[in-house]
Amino acid sequence: MRNRSRTVTFQFPFHLPEVPGMQQPGSYIVDTEEEEVEAASPPVYRLVRTVFRLVAVGVSRLVEIDPENLERAVRQDSDNAGLFRFANAPDRDFGRDGGDPVADVPARAMITRR
After folding, report:
1. Could you report the per-residue pLDDT of 43-87, keeping only the tens digit for each?
2. Is the full-model pTM beyond 0.85?
3. 45 and 32 in contact (C-beta within 8 Å)?
4. Could you list the residue range(s) of the whole structural domain that residue 35 is in?
5. How many C-beta neighbours within 10 Å does residue 73 have?
């Protein structure tokens, strides 16, 4: 068995299906447990579980999550950060009418990748 921990930082509120409600931006610890696949050379590990550590008012809670849901939330946070930087760029007068470039983008072009 192999255990790993990493820190994931969110800049914006986010949601994980396994946790009710929106979570606050900040840094969170994610623990993974992996087991070694027998008879593999070099050693190969298979993911057994992923645990998300929630800390609220000094109380820590461990929630088992689907790693794909976590990666989706991280990707969405990164997409939000990119849109935020774009919308708050100092030289925003490059829209069609000299207006807001985000408002000038057709709605279908703003659909984020999944």
Report:
1. 889 999 999 999 877 788 999 999 999 999 999 998 887 766 655
2. no
3. no
4. 2-110
5. 20
